[in-house]
Design goal:
homodimer; alpha/beta; Nucleotidyltransferase, domain 5; 2 domains; five-stranded mixed β-sheet; 10 helices; 38% helix; 18% strand
Chain lengths: 330, 330
């Protein structure tokens, strides 16, 4: 046995899965091992790949399984966190009712924690990332969709139906006037602030824009592969006024989500992660400005608005952190 | 000492304060003692009245102070829950920075818990009211304003800045189109669903209503004392179509608040308390219908929507419950 407890964190996504061994202080012992998920090959092969990814991560860390205290695994929703069950996530079709936690626990004979991937990433940022040292933190993850996680005193708010921290589906506009969300409802934060919807809004804004000529118009007929949220943020940073408007609106919508987090759990920190945070401080301070303008004055005077610091490592680090919480609770 | 632990719960409001001794199983040992708060007489007199109310409650229970294990006190916001401090609540003007917890602890030589009044009421309903047996519960209290509290596993979500569960200020419409709230912002749930705003909306709806003649018009020039939310709910129950529309809209707005509770903490139960719940099952089922229609499908399929069961006793019972939590944590 190693002197210090060590944990494997496995973060399963729809395209790839990543795992690494993480020390008791949150430091990964190697770069993560990455393998293709290939969900279309079925869940039995998926479980086998998970076990193989874990084995390779242990080897990459230069340790043996005997040195591992506990294992954590995280998957995208829909899952049943208490039961350790993948139910039927759209990103892992056609998997259904996969008892992932118990399978891995049996395969390795180790205590195994299961968590939703966005919750795990939030816990990673809370434990050793942007939220290190905070008592409570809410994370919004900005990608193709908008996800989230809520941590209070090292406890993940999992929810009674494993839907705690589904912050992309906080509604920021009434259903009768709100934008259509992929979930079927209208007015969800995700329908405004996901990378996909930032681009959609830019396309819409072009139609009525009468301000200075915008380089965004060059992308009017571009495919979604060429016309990304990054293009918009880069043009905004270069001073393009239409692009600035789209980014400014994005900050406003995200701030409305942050205000809802404050009115419910009133965290010490609100952290934003994902591709858009590459834009940096000018974008963060726009969000902060809107939070202070539209949030409850007393808590938003003090709440810290920050960007995530672990990048795409937050998932496996946080998942290892969940394994650590499990080991410490025993 | 009595065989069973016993707790005093003191619920301080802007007009009156109430206290009673509550047994370890949540049963009050007497009707609550009620005294006038008279905040305008200053905080020293206020603290003296609190102590006197506690003494009378102990006497009313037929026990002595020696039989009391711990004391709980709750006040309306703004307070600092961790520090046990009343900061400057609009309902307790001109009180400022009152160290209420330490004052009572010293006066009686008992462990003393301090809590926000809506949080305490939520804990009361969770402990022995509508939420008894649930793992997690969110309470919306409907009165002159809209308040709330969030309980997860017997823990009150107090928030880092004592603003956890400020559910009246969950925003249900964007600031540019939302109704004006008393807090200064626009679009808050309270600006739609407080008793005051239910009446305001009824007055506004009269202006454009072209449906069947409504008895609400009799109240067009009535004062707010005569034209109450109760009048509207009673007329709706009697089949008045305009009144029904106002009530139906209220259920819709409350459901949007409930959806936000689900997307953040995903509780097992969402409970509504306050005057309007006297309307009964038909109003509850309207709210439930909108929650299922506009909320995330998976959690709202199972979330229980209920009305509070302790009435105005929830405050002092829950406050005594906070004293009990404090005693059990020692």
């Amino acid at each position: 046995m190693a002197d210090q407890a060590q944990f494997v964190g496995l973060d399963v996504g729809g395209t790839t899965m990543k795992a690494a061994v993480v020390a008791d202080d949150g430091r990964p012992l190697s770069k993560p091992v990455v393998m293709d998920t290939n969900p279309e090959r079925g869940q039995d092969e998926g479980l086998a790949t998970m076990c193989e990814t874990i084995r390779r991560a242990v080897a990459a860390a230069g340790i043996t399984l005997a040195d591992v205290t506990a294992i954590g695994v995280a998957t995208p929703g829909l899952g049943d966190i208490r039961k350790g069950l993948i139910i039927d996530p759209p990103n892992l079709k056609p998997w259904k009712n996969v008892p992932v936690r118990d399978h891995i626990a049996r395969a390795f004979g180790k205590p195994t924690a299961y968590q939703n991937d966005a919750n795990a990433a939030a816990y990673g940022e809370f434990w050793v990332g942007a939220g290190r040292g905070a008592k409570s933190m809410v994370l919004f993850t900005l990608g193709t969709g908008v996800g989230g996680g809520i941590i209070i005193d090292h406890k993940i708010i999992e929810g009674e139906h494993s839907h705690g921290g589904e912050l992309g589906h906080l509604r920021i506009a009434m259903p009768d006037v709100g934008r259509q969300c992929g979930c079927g409802a209208r007015g969800c934060l995700e329908a405004y602030a996901s990378a996909t919807n930032v681009v959609r809004r830019a396309r819409e804004d072009m139609a009525w824009w009468r301000g200075p000529a915008s380089r965004l118009r060059d992308y009017y007929t571009a495919t979604d592969e060429d016309f990304t949220a990054k293009v918009i943020f880069d043009l905004a940073a270069a001073g393009d006024e239409l692009a600035l408007k789209v980014v400014d609106d994005t900050a406003y919508y995200l701030a409305l989500g942050a205000c809802a987090a404050t009115a419910t759990v009133d965290p010490e920190m609100i952290v934003f992660g994902g591709g858009m945070v590459a834009a940096g401080e000018w974008f963060r301070s726009k969000i902060e400005g809107y939070v202070k303008r539209f949030g409850l004055p007393y808590p938003t005077k003090s709440v810290k608005i920050a960007f995530a610091s672990l990048g795409s490592d937050a998932g496996f680090i946080g998942t290892a952190g969940c394994a650590r919480l499990l080991a410490h609770s025993k």
